[in-house]
Amino acid sequence: MRFERIHHVAIICANYERSKHFYTNILGFRIIHEQYRTERNSYKLDLQAGDIQIELFSFANPPKRPSEPEACGLRHLAFAVRNIDDAVRYLQKHGIDVEPIRVDPVTGKRFTFFRDPDDLPLELYETSTREE
Question: At 3, is the pLDDT very low, low, confident or very high (cuts 50, 70, 90)?
Answer without folding.
Answer: low
